[in-house]
Amino acid sequence: MVTRVATVAFEGIEARAVDVQVQIASGNVAFMVVGLPDKAVAESRERVRSALIASGLALPAKRITVNLAPADLPKEGSHYDLPIALGIMAAMGALPADALESFTVLGELALDGSISAVAGVLPAAIAANARGHGLICPAACGPEAAWASEGVEVLAPRSLIQLSNHFKGVQVMARPEPAVATVDDTLPDLKDIKGQESAKRALEIAAAGGHNLLMNGPPGAGKSMLAQRLPSILPPLSPRELLEVSMIQSVAGTLANGALSNRRPFRAPHHSASMAALVGGGLNARPGEVSLAHCGVLFLDELPEFQPQALDSLRQPLEAGEVVIARANHRVTYPARFQLVAAMNPCRCGQATEPGFACRRQPNERCIAQYQARLSGPLLDRIDLMIEVPAVTAADLILPPPAEGSAEVAARVAAARARQAKRYAVLGIEGISTNAACPAPLIEEMARPDPEGTALLREAADAMRLTARGFHRVLKVARTLADLDGEDRVRRRHLAEALSYRSHTDRRPILA
Ligand SMILES: Nc1ncnc2c1ncn2[C@@H]1O[C@H](COP(=O)(O)OP(=O)(O)OP(=O)(O)O)[C@@H](O)[C@H]1O
Ligand SMILES: [Mg+2]
After folding, report:
1. CB 378 less than 6 A from any atom of ligand 1
2. Are residues 329 and 250 in the same domain?
3. Residue 512 domain-assigned?
C-alpha cells in the first residue's frame, strides 16, 4: 500500500504541489528516496531515521521507497524531512491513516525528533489554503503560516511526538497567532543633516515617486548619511506589498521568528557583492538583493567600486521589475521592483569637483572620466535623479539643527504617494502604485504637460539628446513633482526641475 503526504517545491515565490509517496514492502532492507532529490533531500534519509528512533519508532526491517512526485520537478532544500517521516509513520500505522489527508506538510527534522524552522512557510501556507488544505509546519514558523488566511488550519509542532499526541487527541495544539515584528522607532532622522538642502529635496522626490537616485560628491559630504535616512521618510508597505515582500523574505529564510513587518526593505550590499548575490541564483536559485529590496530601496554605496558586470546585471530588473534566473533545467522568476539609490565620488581622489582642487596625477577631467567610465551609459540612463552633493561648509556645520526633520518630509511623501496610488487604482492597473513604476505609454498621458511645458520639453530633449527612456523618465519625475505640489497638471516649472536632475549625464566629460 502507498501512503501519500502533500508537500511543496518552490519555484521562485510560487509553491508547487508535490506528493510524497511512501511504500513499505517486503524485500531487501533499504530506504530510498527517488524523484529528482538534491543532496539535502537525499540526506534526509539519515535525519528521518534518527528522528524516528528518537521518537521511539524504529524503521521496519523492510524495503522503504519514498517517491517525490512529479519526478521531473527538481526538489531542493531540507523541508521534505517532515512529510517523509509522517508518510513513513502513517505507513507503519503510528498515525491514523486519514490524519494527514487534508494537510500540506513541510519541516526539517533534527536527530532528536524535534522540528527545525525552514524557509518558504508563508508561500506554502498560501498554496495549502488555495488547495483547501491545512498546514503542518515547524513551531518556529507557525506565526508566519498563520498570516496566509484566518481560515487555514495550522499545526506547528515542536517535535514528532507532539504531533503524534495531537492526532491521538492526547495533547491538542492551539493555532499559532500571526506575529508582527516589533519595529524600533529609532531610524536615523534627516534633522541630523546640516545644509545639503538640494540633496534633501532630491531625496524627498525620490521617496515620493520611487525614483532612482545617484548622489555624486566628495568624501565626507554626507551621501551615505542621506541615503541611510531614506527609510525614515518612506511610507509603510500597503497590505498587498507586505504580502509580496514577506513571501520573498520567507523563501530567502530572512523572516526573523516568522514575524512580518510593514517597513519598506532597505538593502545595502557591500561593493564586493557578486552578480549572484545581487540578482539571485547560486545554490537553490535564492532571491538576490534586488528581490529582497522589492517595494523598497537598494542602496549601492561607492557605486563605481562594484564589479561592472554585477552592475550591468541590474539593467534588466531595473526595467522589468522582475528578475528571471535561468537554470539548466528550469527558470525561476522573482519580483524585483526596487528603487535604486547610489552614491559615488566624482573621481578616485574624490575631490575633482571641488573648486580650486587640482588632481596631482592627471588633469581633473581625465581623473573624473577614468573613474566614471566604470559605470555603463545604459545603467546611468536608468537613473532619474542625478545630483551633486558638495562638501558641507563649516558655516553650515556650525548652524543649529534644521527645524524640519523626517516626520514633516514623510508627511509630504505620504500625501504624494497617496495621490499616485489613487490615480493608478482608478485606472485599474495591477501592482502599480508609483510614478516610477508607470509604463511609458501611460505616463505620456498621465504627465501631459501644459503648452509651455511641452515647448520646454521639446527644446530640452533635442538639446540634451535625451534617449526615449530619458524622455519618459523626465516625465515621471515631473509627474512626481506635480504630485508633491498637489497639482493635477504637470507645469513648466515641474519639467524644468525634472530636467535639471538629468543634465548631469550630459556634462560627463569625454575621455581625452
Ligand atoms: N551635512 C552634514 N551634516 C552633519 N554631519 C555631516 C554632514 N555631512 C557629513 N557629516 C559627517 O561626516 C560623516 C561622514 O559622512 P558620510 O559617510 O555620509 O560621507 P560620504 O559622503 O558618504 O563620504 P564617502 O564618499 O567617503 O563615502 C558623517 O558620519 C557625519 O558625522
Ligand atoms: Mg559614503
Report:
1. no
2. yes
3. no
Same structural domain, 153 and 249: no
Over residues 450-509, the pLDDT tens digits come to 999 999 989 988 888 888 888 999 999 999 999 999 999 999 999 999 999 986 554 444
Asked if 332 and 444 sit in the same domain, the reply is no
How much is the average pLDDT of 280-288?
82
DSSP string, 287-338: E-HHHHTTTSEEEESSGGGS-HHHHHTTHHHHHHSEEEEE-SS-EEEEE---
Using CA atoms, how far apart are residues 388 and 223, in angstroms rounded to an integer? Answer: 10
Q: Give me the CATH number covering residue 108.
A: 3.30.230.10
Residues 44 and 127 occupy one common structural domain: yes
Residue 185 belongs to a domain: no
Task: Tell me, yes or no, if the pTM score tops 0.90.
Answer: no
| CATH code of 257's domain | 3.40.50.300
Specify whether 401 is located in the same domain as 413: no
Quote the cell numbers at residue 494.
Answer: 515641474
Per DSSP, helices labelled H in 338-467 are: 364-372, 377-381, 394-398, 406-427, 440-446, 451-463
> How many Å apart are CA 19 and CA 33, to the nearest integer?
13
Coil, helix or strand at residue 21? strand
Cβ–ligand 1 distance for 392 under 6 Å, the answer: yes
The answer on 139 and 54 residing in a single domain is yes
Q: Find the domain containing 207 and state its range.
A: 190-405
Residues around ligand 2, an ion, CB closer than 5 A: 224
Are 466 and 500 contained in the same domain?
yes
- Domains in the chain, number: 3
Indicate if 396 and 420 belong to the same structural domain. Answer: no
- 196 in ligand 1 pocket by Cβ < 6 Å? yes
d(CA 288, CA 275): 9
Residue corresponding to grid cell 521639446: 458
CA–CA separation, 420 and 186 (whole Å): 28
Q: How confident is the model over 90-126, as pLDDT tens digits?
A: 999 888 878 899 999 999 999 999 999 999 999 999 9
Q: Residue 463 — left, alpha, or beta (φ > 0 → left; ψ -120 to 50 → alpha)?
A: alpha
Residue of 193, 197, 224, 228 to mutate, ligand 1, most atoms within 8 A of C-beta: 224
- Ligand 1 contact via 346 beta carbon (within 6 Å): no
For residue 137, being part of any structural domain is answered with yes
Whether 219 is in the pocket of ligand 1, judged by its Cβ within 6 Å, is: yes
Tell me whether residue 205 is in a domain. yes
The answer, yes or no, to whether any atom of ligand 1 lies below 6 A from the CB of 282, is no
Alpha helices in 15-80 (DSSP H): 39-42, 44-54
Which residue minimizes the CA distance to atom 29 of ligand 1? Answer: 225
